[in-house]
Design a protein that fits this description.
Length: 214
């Protein structure tokens, strides 16, 4: 059977039975009924578990399909950009790494953050304090100092929170410092966090920090 005959059968939408010569075997009554009702014979054959066998042509179906998407209309994807999170006015913004921290206040409103630097913190008396969490045996003195500073910084934030110095907190620090701070902070400090960014922004101007947070 030539491909032209098969194409002709499929194109007509077929009213009548499926020809044995086109599909290699007689159509079942159920299959004929679907074809006579106007269903595409290829769909009918596939739905009944038929394999359309034409010499020299790869089979079009290998078994029944559980469902068909005929009549369904594809919905367009929502590709609208996500709105940046607004930083509350007067929120405390802490930008830190393992050796220093800068504390800002947000003087902006809505989606526009305008940061005003209030304080600059550095490690104090590292030798007299231990690091936050457990110290691995392979940890270097520098790494120990960075972990200790993270604990000191969290202690400062906790004291400020208890004093009512801020209601909303934004943290921006390198992943290691951010993790060390989270391990050491109290629930009150953790609950005040509205935004957390795993980036080292300590050496960036205030406007660049604001842009990175937005």
């Amino acid at each position: 059977m030539s491909l032209a005959v098969v194409a002709s059968v499929l194109a007509r939408g077929v009213s009548g039975t499926l020809p044995t010569r086109a599909f290699g075997r007689a159509a079942s009554p159920g299959l004929r009924g679907r074809c006579e009702s106007g269903e595409d014979p290829a769909d009918a054959a596939e739905g009944a578990g038929w394999t359309i066998g034409v010499p020299g042509v790869t089979a079009l179906s290998a078994g029944p399909r559980p469902w068909t998407n005929r009549g369904l209309r594809r919905q367009p994807l929502d590709r609208s950009p996500a709105m940046p999170q607004a930083i509350p006015n007067n929120a405390l913004v802490v930008v830190a790494d393992g050796g220093k921290a800068r504390l800002f206040r947000n003087a902006g409103h809505g989606q526009e953050a305008r940061l005003r630097e209030d304080a600059h913190l550095t490690p104090q008396d590292l030798a007299s304090e231990g690091p936050s969490g457990s110290r691995p045996e392979e940890q270097t003195p520098r790494q120990t100092g960075e972990a200790t500073f993270a604990k000191q910084l969290v202690r400062r934030l906790d004291a400020m929170r208890r004093q009512g110095a801020y209601d909303h907190l934004v943290l921006a620090a390198d992943p290691q410092t951010l993790g060390q701070m989270r391990d050491a902070m109290s629930k009150a400090v953790a609950d005040s966090i509205v935004l957390s960014v795993a980036k080292d922004l300590t050496n960036h101007p205030a406007q660049d920090v604001a842009d990175a947070l937005g």
